[in-house]
Design goal:
The protein is α/β, with parallel strands linked by helices.
Length: about 950
């Protein structure tokens, strides 16, 4: 029996095997058309014209036969698909089809004679309706069916909510109405019903939040406020529940109107031009840049509203400063957009898994592979980019405050626009002009992907006057206009602050001071309850839920709701979908500056306790926030486990840079605790956990990694933890070896052997033997190296650690080929290199094969087998390109340059190795570069490069290639 789904996901599943059947997308759409017209034969000629209207009749029929062939192979055993020479027809029978299940259960619900039967069938119908019909297909027939099915689902939600309400099951009624709102977020009926249900449930704060969310959606999407009916329902509910007699009723204060957008015609035109380019197959990143308060966010929001009205998908995300959000949070926000979420469900399983990993990182164990994990990260980034493109429809991705963006999100954007340049996607970002690292990274991105900058400056005098008049509700005098322009500099946010506070700032150059005074004056007018909420939100540093405000604050729930509503109406706070945040970051800065240090300390602690109380069942999404709050609240001991958990979650989504930052914060926290054995153990645990992301982020030669390992070794020795001590020594060997410190690395490897010998763990001892064998090769002691490689192979049984990445048996065998060559055992060297590659091809880790090919390519070069070298280099380059492997990519550049006699490519590889501090084998790489110059007749350059190679070999004790360098110099003399 087959299970066929078209609602929210397109799939045909064999229920016996669980296997997915994969017809072509067009064949699946053909089946969907037949299923939605059951029992009605569809003439072949009509279907051909419907699905291929731009093709000649003969070609259209040929296309139909091809897709029908694909479809029949997928559903070959079912009698439900009836095919004749004249027509096609779907007749319900053996197959389980979600669309048919929805229609059948819905019809039975409507025919039910009592509420219980109606509820049972309606619930089954809604269970079958898991999303939009045939997402991604924009054929006219499909959009018509999609709209009709959605309307049926909306009507059923309304009926089911009414029945559950009548039966007294208010929570279930509210649940179904929330689903209705997701289906039709711009219809106010759902919000009104939900507010009434929440009020009946005693959830006063929920009703307020629903109204605010409704207003935010309507303002963002349609540029309108809730209609009078919705406002009346909201205000009546609040009056009915407000028993206090000495204050204004909630809802009676009109909300401050949205300031109009003025003086931005040129900027809107620039954004529209970028949109037109993207829609013609030239996707790009457009960055609206300017000072804080100049109106960047408002401009992009207005532009987003205009393209949404034209049918585009608009997904929004925002970067936050110093809030400890997990990496890729903006990408996660985009992928939670209903249109993108529906489309992502249609991805192939391997790409869909990347979305699941991002949205639920706590369910996935991090891949602790150090540098070897780079290949997984490359595939992860590609999967997220594919998910953002999944709708295949015109899409605007809005990214606010990109100056605070994490590097991982920028990597996804780089891949999105670089690997898929003809997709109908425009990324519109806002950015402060402050020279942060993110702005520098955007500058680097501009060299490889299209980036357009739209600078935004203050309003001119005429536009500032128009805005001031609109805000004041009257035409101001020329003197008033001049005073406002001089005091605000024409910045829209400053104008709004001045008009709202009633304070006209003086003129001068200290714009920041003037703005602080304006915002301070506005905040000073707040009552004590509203001021308390402002302080909490400022300390939180990001959006805060009403539940958290109640839990962390001193106010009772009713007073909290009242204060939040006042702040929302004054546009000091805005509804975010997850809670409330300041309408502008400058307001947050001003509010936080008004809190004295002891009060800040108390607020941070209260927020931390509140987070644990509200989200105790699942703290993972709040781990970074909890760590930050406890740390700022003077409780580093409580912050520490949350820093570590946040770092684990960051590593699970390959956010290595953020994991490094979180581990650094954890180290700072633990070192602030009183010294004790327990404190040292905690520090050692933090340092050990930080090693993998440090290696993946910075590479083996990183000074930060070296310092981390040295401290970890010292602590492990103090604590007598020999296994961790041995592991740290092997890690330190890796770092020093890649740095080209051969004598130091040998000493560390010898110490690792000594320590590991007392551990009793074969893997620890095998790792130490491997390390010593590697050093012995570079020191030109090949027989000794072979002994240690053989011991490592015997002890580790194909194991690996993050320090080596590849399997020991593969890596050791590949490296032993160089030792065999040094011993003059050339045939055995060839066999070792070939067997390492063959064994690596049985591993599921591309990094293992990359290592085997890299060492194998060196072996082929020193053996003089140019054809084998060329094959190895081609395979190595393909792997490095596909998975983004650093270090071995530079090996490929030098070796490929040598094969092709391309001195520029080889020199680039050498320079990149030097730039990362990777001086291992540098004499050999320089020798190959010199050989290219010598073959081209540039003997002077070749001799100079060989001199540098000789100096490097002697200085760094890199002796294995020293005789060849000396012979090369003699040949050029």
């Amino acid at each position: 029996m087959l299970h066929v789904t078209f609602l929210g996901e397109q799939a045909i599943i064999d229920s016996e095997t669980g296997d997915a059947v994969s017809p072509s997308p067009r064949a699946l759409a053909l089946l969907a058309f037949l299923v939605t017209h059951p029992g009605i034969p569809q003439a072949r000629a009509r279907l051909a014209a419907l699905f291929w209207p731009d093709s000649p009749d003969g070609q259209a029929l040929t296309n139909l036969r091809r897709e029908l062939h694909s479809l029949r192979r997928s559903v070959s055993d079912t009698p439900d698909l009836v095919v004749t020479t004249a027509d096609l027809c779907w007749r319900d029978g053996e197959c389980a089809v979600d669309v048919r299940a929805f229609d059948t259960e819905r019809a039975q619900a409507l025919d039910a004679g009592d509420d219980a039967a109606f509820e049972a069938h309606a619930t089954s119908a809604l269970r079958a309706y898991r999303g939009a019909f045939l997402p991604g297909c924009e054929d006219n027939w499909a959009t018509a069916v999609r709209g009709e099915l959605e309307q049926r689902c909306v009507d059923l939600c309304d009926r089911l909510a009414a029945v559950r309400r009548r039966l007294g099951d208010l929570p279930a009624a509210a649940e179904v109405i929330r689903r209705r709102i997701l289906l039709r977020p711009s219809e106010e009926t759902g919000y009104r019903t939900l507010m009434e249900l929440q009020f009946e449930l005693g959830d006063r704060s929920g009703a307020v939040r629903t109204f605010h969310h409704c207003a935010a959606v309507l303002e963002r999407e349609l540029g309108v406020e809730p209609d009078q009916v919705t406002r009346d329902v909201f205000e009546q509910l609040l009056r009915d529940g407000d028993t206090a007699t000495d204050h204004q009723h909630l809802g009676t204060q009109a909300r401050v109107p949205t300031p109009p957008l003025v003086g931005r015609d040129r900027s809107i035109t620039a954004l529209s031009d970028a949109w037109s380019r993207a829609m013609t197959g030239r996707s790009e990143l457009v960055v609206v840049s300017g000072d804080a308060g100049v109106g960047k966010t408002r401009l992009v929001a207005e532009f987003g509203r205009s393209v949404r009205r034209r049918g585009a998908i608009v997904a929004r995300a925002r970067c936050l400063a110093g809030t400890g959000r997990l990496p890729l949070a903006p990408v996660a926000d985009w992928l939670r957009d209903p249109a993108l979420a529906d489309a992502a469900r249609q991805l192939a399983p391997e790409w869909r898994a990347t979305v699941d990993r991002l949205l639920s990182p706590g369910r996935t164990e991090p891949d602790v592979e150090g540098a070897a994990g780079a290949w997984r990260r490359a595939r992860f980034v590609e999967g997220l980019a594919r998910a953002l493109l999944a709708p295949g429809a015109p899409t605007l991705l809005v990214l606010d405050d990109v100056q605070w963006c994490d590097g991982d999100t920028l990597d996804v954007l780089h891949h999105l626009l670089g690997a898929f340049p003809r997709s109908p996607v425009l990324v519109a970002a806002t950015m402060r002009s402050d020279g942060t690292e993110s702005t520098r990274q955007l500058g680097r991105m501009a060299s490889t992907i299209p980036v357009t900058t739209v600078p935004l400056g203050p309003l001119d005098a005429a536009s500032a006057a128009a805005l001031a008049d609109a805000l004041a509700g009257r035409v101001l005098s020329e003197t008033e206009h001049a005073l406002l322009l001089a005091g605000t500099g024409g910045f829209p946010f400053h104008l709004v602050a001045a008009l709202h506070s009633g304070v006209v700032p003086g003129s001068g150059d200290q714009r920041a001071d003037r703005l602080r005074d304006l915002l301070g004056a506005r905040l000073a007018t707040l009552g004590p309850d509203a001021a308390a909420i402002v302080a909490l939100v400022a300390a939180a540093g990001r959006d805060v839920s009403l539940d958290l405000l109640v839990e962390a604050g001193d106010l009772d729930p009713v007073a909290t709701v009242r204060a939040v509503d006042v702040l929302w109406r004054q546009r000091i706070l805005r509804e975010t979908g997850r809670g409330y945040d300041f309408a502008h970051d400058l307001l947050r800065d001003a509010a936080y500056a008004r809190i004295d240090p002891p009060q800040r300390w108390l607020l941070h602690r209260r927020l931390a306790h509140g987070l644990e109380s509200v989200h105790g069942d699942d703290l993972d999404p709040y781990s970074a926030q909890l760590a930050r709050q406890y740390d700022r609240g003077g409780r580093p001991d409580r912050a520490l486990p949350h820093y570590l958990r946040a770092a684990e979650l960051a590593t699970a989504t390959y956010g290595y840079d953020e994991a490094v930052r979180l581990h650094r914060a954890a180290v700072t926290a633990v070192r602030s605790l009183p010294d004790s054995i327990g404190t040292r153990r905690r520090e050692l645990a933090v340092l050990q956990a930080s090693a993998a992301p440090l290696t993946a982020s910075r590479g083996y030669a990183s000074p930060d990694l070296q310092a981390t390992l040295e401290r970890a070794i010292d602590l492990a020795e103090q604590l007598g933890q020999r296994e961790q001590w041995a592991a740290g020594l092997v890690g330190l060997w890796s770092s020093r070896f890649v740095q080209g410190r051969n004598l130091d690395s040998e000493r560390v490897a010898a110490r690792a052997l000594e320590v590991a010998d007392g551990v009793g763990d074969p893997d620890s001892l095998g790792a130490a033997h491997f390390a010593y064998g590697g050093s012995a090769v570079s020191l030109a002691r090949p027989e000794e190296a072979l002994t240690h490689f053989e011991a490592a192979d015997a002890l580790t049984d194909g194991g690996r650690t993050l320090w080596v990445g590849a399997r020991y048996d593969v890596h050791g065998r590949a490296w032993s080929a160089h030792a065999l060559w040094l011993c003059g055992r050339f045939d055995e060297a060839q066999v070792a290199a070939d067997s390492a590659v063959s064994l690596a091809r049985t591993d599921d880790q591309p990094y293992t094969l990359t290592v085997a090919l890299a060492y194998g390519a060196v072996t082929q070069q020193i053996l003089g087998d140019t054809d084998a070298l060329r094959r190895a280099v081609d395979d190595l380059g393909e792997l490095c390109d596909r998975y983004g492997f650093a270090y071995y990519r530079e090996w490929w550049m030098v070796l490929d340059g040598w094969v092709r006699s391309d001195a520029e490519l080889a020199a680039k590889g050498v320079d990149r190795l030097r730039a990362t501090g990777a001086f291992a084998r540098m004499p050999y790489w320089l020798y190959l570069l010199a050989d290219i110059h010598a073959r081209a007749g540039r003997t002077g350059s070749a001799r100079a490069i060989l001199d540098a190679a000789l100096t490097a070999a002697r200085t760094r004790a890199d002796r294995w290639w020293l005789p060849q360098i000396e012979r090369g110099r003699d040949a050029l003399s």
